[in-house]
Amino acid sequence: MAFHVHGRRETDPTDRPPSEYVMLLMPDAEVTRRMDGAGLVDFVEQAHDAVAEYVRSTRTPLEECQIACALLPGHRILVEVYVWPPPAIVVHAAPLTRALRRLPVPAASAPVAFSLRLRPIPSDNPRQFPPALVAFIGGGEATSLDDMLADVGSLELPLPSTSTFERIRARLAGGARTMPGDITHRTGLPVITTDDRIMCRAAPGFRVENEDPTTGFARVVHANGRREMADAETLVWLRSPSPQPSQAALTAMLDRTASVRVLAGGISRGTPVGDHVLLTIDGTGDLEELFETLEVIDGSSGHCMCLGDPTLELRGLDGARIAALGVHHGQGIRWSGWKDDARLLDGVRLLEWLDAHGVDGPLAAHREAERAGRARQAAWQRWQSRMPEPLRAWSPERWQAMVQRNDVRDALDALSSSHADDLDTIKALFDWFGAGHGPWTAFPSYEQLPELLLLAFPLDALVRAAEDPGLSDDGLEGAARLFAGHVMATGGSANHPPLSAMLVRDQAIFVPARKAQPLDVVPRTLLTRLRRYATRFDDEDKIARARSAFGEDA
Fold first, then answer.
1. DSSP assignment, residue 327?
2. Which DSSP symbol is given to 307?
3. How far apart are CA 336 and CA 356, in angstroms?
4. Same domain assignment for residues 91 and 65
5. Are residues 89 and 71 located together in one domain of the fold?
6. For the chain, what is the domain count?
7. What is the pTM (predicted TM-score) of this model?
8. Measuring CA to CA, which of 112, 426, 526, 527 is 20 to 30 A from 93?
9. 496 and 511 housed in the same domain
10. pLDDT tens digit string along 425-475?
11. What is the extent of the structural domain holding 354?
């Protein structure tokens, strides 16, 4: 496929694409057969200005972005957003989508698409984004960009062509010849064009092994080699050839909807799992208010593993079901006509609308989830603040890798260099382990690291540190949690903590299963101290674990 760069900046190397550009995703001569070239130039300029203004005003770092727009018949638009760093997409996707949808979309007889690449923070290493709009393919064979956009936008095939008069007018106006230059003049960016139709191909897929027709379970082997077990519901999703979500397709459904029933429960394979009707809406005003809340970000937002709750059943004038939309956690919606779930631009707005009409459960559940999320964030911050100083500069990914490999040598070396002796190190780790959140039997995975570090020390050293009369409450919490823990109670030896295998400093220590418990050699006075500490709280989990490990009358 041949690409041409028009208006290249002097600072851009000639051996690779420019760092910032506008790319027309179809031959420019084809563009002028589908819409007025001047209209596209105007829209590209407005889109560039809207994105640039957002980039200037946002407080969340945005190093680079790729924005693709497909202008569809009926003055509709499809928007795709990629940003760097990738996690920032949850911040930037919604406002960028809103900014572009506010622009007046020019008339087009068939899809016209372009992408915009901006790099607000200069870099010698351009980020690698997927080809524009290709991610909207849900699966299946390679197809043309036109056919893919028609599928995503719920357009009728074959696509209509421009009239003879319009084609002659475009040819006489010379729009195809001057359009790249006009875009460069308006935006200051070089323009990349192609002479060929762009073909789209879905990402490499997967294969299914050992599918059990009785249970529906099977082993799935992904293109990257990763293997996992999947149930029948997951296999249906993985095999779906449907396109990715778009506002255009959703709007086309809503335009045909005469009434909506809100049903308790979610959907499975496009069908509501429940039949209890919570609400019926058929008045024009109420329908319009509901439809205004159903605004989604174009493209995939992943696939939630639950069935959702509630379900919005869209019905036509004849009362027949048009579609069933499962609402997921006030964040997204699922429709069987899409490969993945769609993220709502403002999910809370939908939940508030439902609440105002008597369906109050989803909003209450969302608020409780938010409260729990804030509690988890506070617990994470407290745990992080109690982390020993040498480890605070390490990334969570580094901690997680240690936990997964049971390899804590680097952390032990860092701790030993900043503490006077092993006793001092153990007490610092007791403080850290005791700053965790929630029950001892179920806790966030990141809290495993201090436990692994403590288990690297001999049992007699752990006992001496736990017996220290100056141990803080957090230190006592950490000691009680360690000694009452499952690992300490189910293996190891009196000299080494119970782990089947663990890398410590320069050697691998293998500890076979023990016939006796490590707690058999722990002084009774320490067990009594730890039991009394744990049972003074109104926490049934801690009390049960302490009494089980340390005894009722220790």
1. E
2. -
3. 28
4. yes
5. yes
6. 4
7. 0.77
8. 112
9. yes
10. 999 999 999 887 767 777 777 788 888 889 888 888 899 999 999 898 889
11. 240-367
